[in-house]
TrEMBL record:
Belongs to the ABC transporter superfamily. The lineage of its organism: Bacteria, Bacillati, Bacillota, Bacilli, Bacillales. It comes from Fervidibacillus albus. It catalyses: a quaternary ammonium(out) + ATP + H2O = a quaternary ammonium(in) + ADP + phosphate + H(+). This is Carnitine transport ATP-binding protein OpuCA. The keyword Transport applies. The complex is composed of two ATP-binding proteins (OpuCA), two transmembrane proteins (OpuCB and OpuCD) and a solute-binding protein (OpuCC). The keyword NAD does not apply. One of its GO terms (molecular function) is ATP hydrolysis activity.
Length: 320
C-alpha cells in the first residue's frame, strides 16, 4: 500500500532528518512511528502526503510514485489529523466534517448521511452536536470531530500526527478507544505518530521504532517487547518483557464464554503462557478458554493488547 524505498530527508544546513528509510505499510494496517525527539518520525509521516519533500529515494502508494500524483489530488485523498485540530470556528460541526466531501461535490444528502454516521461512531449524537459550533465542544470532543473529519471523504489512507498528546488522560484514553472502534469498523490504512509507547502498543498492528532518522526495528507489539533488536529498543519499550510474561495470568483477562462470536472457536487452557496465547491469537481473533476441561470464558486480541499496553511503563521522549 505505502512503501518507503531508501527514503532520506536532508536539509540545507546538513541536518539529516530521515536516513535511508525502508518500510512497507500494508493495506488496512494501523502502523505507528515512534521514537525520541528528532528521530524523524513526524518527517517520515509528512513525506507521505508531500508536506515535506523527500531528498532521496522514493515513496510509493499503490505502486505509484508519490511524485507522479497531482499534489492536490494526493492530499484530498489522504485524511490528516494534527495535534492542534483547527476546526473552522464559524462553521457548524456537520459543516466542519463535510469540508472535503463538499469540495468533491458530494450531494447534500450524502454528506449529511456520512457526517451523522461518523458522529454516531464516536458517541456524538448528531441531534445534539451537528449544529453546534466548535467553541461549544470540549477539547476531547473537538479532537473527536477532527478524527472523523479526516475519515469523512472515505479516503484510503489516514495520517495522524500526535493527535491526542495535548489532551488530558481521560479524554486521551476515550479517544484511543474510539480510534480502536473506528479501526475495526473501517479498516483504513492508518499511519500514526506518537511519543507514547503505551499508546503505540494499544493501537498498533505494527510499530516502527526510530532513532537518528533510521528505523531501528519494525514489528508487532509482542515482537518489540519480547524480541527487541538491541538494547535501545529494549529500554525504549521499558525492558518489561520478562516481567509481563511472569506476571501473566490468563484467567484475569477473560470475558464470559457466552460472549464468543465464533461458532467453533479455538480453545486454550488457562495454564497457557502469554507467548502461547499470542501465538494462537496471531491466527485466531478469539480463543475459548478452558480449565479442567470446562469452558470458563473467552480471550481476544484486543484484551491482550490492552494488557500489554497497561504493563509497559517505558515512554518515548517529547515530540520532535
Amino acid at each position: 500500500m505505502i512503501r518507503f524505498e531508501n527514503v532520506s530527508k536532508k536539509y540545507d544546513d546538513g541536518t539529516v532528518a530521515v536516513d535511508s528509510l525502508n518500510v512497507e505499510i500494508n493495506r488496512g494496517e494501523f502502523f505507528v512511528f515512534i521514537g525520541p525527539s528528532g528521530s524523524g518520525k513526524t518527517t517520515s509521516l509528512k513525506m507521505i502526503n508531500q508536506l515535506v519533500p523527500l531528498s532521496d529515494g522514493m515513496i510509493y502508494i499503490n505502486g505509484k510514485q508519490v511524485l507522479d500524483y497531482d499534489i492536490y489530488e494526493l492530499r484530498w485523498n489522504i485524511g490528516y489529523v494534527l495535534q492542534q485540530i483547527a476546526l473552522f470556528p464559524h462553521m457548524t460541526i456537520e459543516q466542519n466534517i463535510t469540508v472535503v466531501p463538499e469540495m468533491k461535490k458530494w450531494s447534500k444528502e450524502k454528506m449529511k448521511k456520512r457526517a451523522y454516521e461518523l458522529m454516531e461512531m464516536v458517541g456524538l449524537d448528531p441531534a445534539i452536536y451537528a449544529n453546534r459550533k466548535p467553541h461549544q465542544l470540549s477539547g476531547g470532543e473537538q479532537q473527536r470531530v477532527g478524527v472523523i473529519r479526516a475519515l469523512a471523504a472515505d479516503s484510503e489512507i489516514i495520517l495522524m500526527d500526535e493527535p491526542f498528546s495535548a489532551l488530558d488522560p481521560i479524554s486521551r484514553e476515550k479517544l484511543q478507544d474510539d480510534l480502536l472502534h473506528l479501526k475495526n469498523q473501517l479498516k483504513k490504512t492508518t499511519v500514526f505518530v506518537t511519543h507514547d509507547m503505551e499508546e503505540a502498543l494499544k493501537l498498533a498492528d505494527r510499530i516502527c521504532i526510530m532513532k537518528d532518522g533510521k528505523a531501528v526495528q519494525v514489528g508487532t507489539p509482542f515482537e518489540l517487547i519480547h524480541h527487541p533488536a538491541n538494547e535501545f529498543v529494549h529500554q525504549f519499550v521499558g525492558g518489561k518483557g520478562n516481567r509481563i510474561e511472569g506476571d501473566f495470568q490468563l484467567e484475569q483477562l477473560l470475558s464470559p464464554s457466552e460472549e464468543t462470536t465464533i461458532e467453533d472457536p479455538m480453545t486454550i487452557d488457562t495454564s497457557a503462557s502469554l507467548n502461547e496465547v499470542l501465538e494462537k491469537l496471531a491466527e485466531h481473533e478469539q480463543l475459548l478458554v478452558v480449565k479442567n476441561g470446562e469452558r470458563i470464558g473467552t480471550i481476544n486480541r484486543q484484551r491482550v493488547i490492552q494488557y500489554l499496553s497497561k504493563n509497559v511503563q517505558g515512554r518515548g521522549q517529547s515530540n520532535e
